[in-house]
Design a protein that fits this description.
By secondary structure, the chain is an alpha+beta fold. The protein has helices at 3-17, 23-30, 34-50, 73-79, 90-102, 107-114, 119-127, 150-155, 169-188; strands at 21-22, 55-60, 63-68, 105-106, 131-136, 144-148. The longest helix has 20 residues, at 169-188.
Length: 189
């Protein structure tokens, strides 16, 4: 199989699957090693970008997925029903941030950090497929552990949670000071 044929096979796989496909599975099909397969896919990604195509290939950890470019959204809604738009409120975003940075994490740990019940926010994140159950803690009651999903990576345009911005010690101190100010305000009311 030459490179053009391998590219065609990869396109067919990614288009047909509609969701992410592990690079190892693609490598087996085109009878190449994982690194060679990644290079071929990255070349395809570059071609799509250079040719300003309406589609692109996303890399999500050790998987790839074909999708539509964001810039094509307005044209798509003229043809299809308007896709569901999720509203991420401050509470939901705060909860998502905690899960993304502390995963795997239990609901109780989230509530301890936030200082309030988080059932609604966690349920919304599960409904939006940004968060999922990733296991259970090996303690009495076996609480559910939550983590982010591939959909989270897709929506926030990152390949893995390792790409999330870091939090500096100075920023942590700023957050603590803000929280203490809020507590003082509530106590004074």
């Amino acid at each position: 199989m030459n490179v053009k044929e391998m590219e065609a096979v990869i396109e067919a796989i990614l288009f047909t699957m509609g969701e992410s496909v592990e690079v190892g599975r693609i490598a087996k099909v085109i009878e190449q090693d994982v690194n060679t397969t990644k290079k071929i896919i990255h070349n395809l990604m570059d071609k799509y970008e250079e040719e300003d195509r309406g589609i692109r290939i996303l890399e999500l950890e050790d998987s790839f997925q074909m999708c539509t470019k964001k810039e094509m959204y307005e044209y798509l809604i003229q043809i299809a029903k308007q896709p569901k738009r999720y509203v991420l409120t401050d509470v939901v975003l705060e909860t998502l941030s905690i899960i993304a940075y502390k995963q795997p994490i239990t609901k109780l740990e989230i509530e301890r950090i936030r200082g309030v019940k988080s059932d609604h926010a966690v349920n919304k994140l599960v409904e939006y497929n940004l968060v999922a159950e990733v296991g259970r803690m090996d303690t009495p009651g076996r609480p559910i552990l939550f983590g982010t999903t591939e959909e989270f990576l897709r929506r926030f345009s990152v390949q893995s949670v390792d790409e999330l911005p870091g939090i500096t010690p100075e920023k942590v101190e700023d957050f603590k000071a803000e929280a203490e100010d809020e507590i003082q305000l509530k106590l004074n009311l």
